[in-house]
């Protein structure tokens, strides 16, 4: 438990005391793109710095080396996916499965989270 607390403290240092040092947020609650420069086809500078700090932390904690030259941060594409939650029941599950979700998670006894690919990119 102490090791987890220390890890979470280090993650908060990456984001200046906020949660989420282990994530890159790509959209807001309305589904609008954020932290991404569409003209440059890359993450915004502060987002890239945060990602690299996280990768360096992982490298330090796991003993592997982070080689920045082996990572592609440019010429990126983005796609819109649809995320939702349903209450579990056989009928709702069958209907969801007919839509071919690309991710599915039982998050509680009262919720199944899913992601759909409405543009059939995958």
Structure notes:
The chain has 122 residues and is of the alpha+beta class. It folds into two domains: 69 residues, no CATH class; 35 residues, no CATH class. Helix content is 33%, strand content 17%. It has three helices and five strands, in the order H-E-E-H-E-H-E-E. The strands form two sheets. The chain has a three-stranded antiparallel β-sheet, covered by helices on one side. Strand 4 and strand 5 form a beta hairpin. It is globular. The chain starts with a helix and ends in a 6-residue tail after the last strand. The model has no long low-confidence stretch (mean pLDDT 89).
Question: Which key phrases capture this entry?
Answer:
single chain, 122 residues, alpha+beta, 2 domains, three-stranded antiparallel β-sheet, two-stranded antiparallel sheet, 33% helix
Mean pLDDT: 89
Q: Which sequence of strands runs across the widest sheet?
A: 3-5-4
Helical fraction equals 25-40%
The N- to C-terminal Cα distance equals 39 Å
Number of helices: 3
